[in-house]
Amino acid sequence: MRLQARTFQRKDLPVRRWMALTAALALLVAMGAAQARPSKKADGPSPGGISSDNVEWLSHIPLIPSATGGRVVGDYFYVNDQNKITIMDISDPLNPAITGVLPMPQEAIFSREDLDTNGKIMVVPDTVRGVLHVVDVEDKTNPTIIAELPGGAAHTVSCILDCKWAYGSEGSIIDLRDPTNPEMMEEQWGDGMPTTSGHDVNEVKIGSGIVLTSTQPMMLLDARKDPRHPKLLATGSNEDFRFIHSSTWPQGGKDKILLAGGETNFKPRCNETNGAFMTWDASDWKKTHTFTMIDEYRMINGTYTDGNPAVNGVGCSSHWLEASPKFKNGGIVAAAFFEHGTRFIDISSKGKIEEIGYFMPHAGSTGAVYWITKDILYAVDYSRGIDILRFTGKQ
User: Are 199 and 155 in contact (CB under 8 A)?
Assistant: First the structure.
């Protein structure tokens, strides 16, 4: 059975345009909210938000409102909001410069989160029109749509094998060897596979053809020889069959720890069923062909001034996450948690999880965070745009 026919129909996808009202409500009720656990040492409020003493808010880029996701390739950051794609020169990460803008059809909600590009072409799904846009981004001052593929849209579409192919989150396979004439294949990457839901796929190393799926169960696929018929290498599943939103494998798939996040939304209060940040054992997958969950971590509500909002608008979910460039069999991970902002999580060599820092923006809802250098990050926010942060903690 094809993956698309079996795809889990999510009823809890986030509506992300009413964040300011939620933050204001949180402030009103904060005094009556109970603190559930000791907080990290706070550094106090800044013009950008509230942070722990090992996270510094540096500046804010308001020109990209409703920002949903991006991609770092070389000295450029490609970021999208709900009506355009923006290319930024980040060779000076504290002073990024916009080099090019491409207006795109607006998506009011569920916009293209996991933007993907190899720096030459970009794949941009448009779920409103049901098409996949192929964009030439080689000229950073003049990004241009060079093709549209009807029926090629999905919640996320990811480059495979240096953007010669693309995989859609629901199972589609697209031939991009001629990017001006993309072709939808009859096959799907989930054909004959054990998974029943899909939100994202990504190569563990750019251009490698080894693909990790954010599905239940998660799957490791080998698309190197035949992208139309990838080979199943390993799986990882949860007993509760929870929804997997995103997953990544540090060190290009060489690390012994794999990272994943879940998503549950429309829940104003955090509890034990909210989407969790997770670590998985990937140390012996070649022998066992399995990944096993080690630890999980969920958000709580608090008093706002302790770094935890009293209530949530979108929810307490773990969203997009990224390991530090210095991550090696443990280390620091930056993860986006909507109204909880950016959380800095220390992963031990055994995969155990400990939150060690945070930045919670004023009237914000953070959807993704990207390491630009070993200590500078861009937090992409559905309400605010982009916040530039510095992590000063030990790595």
Answer: yes
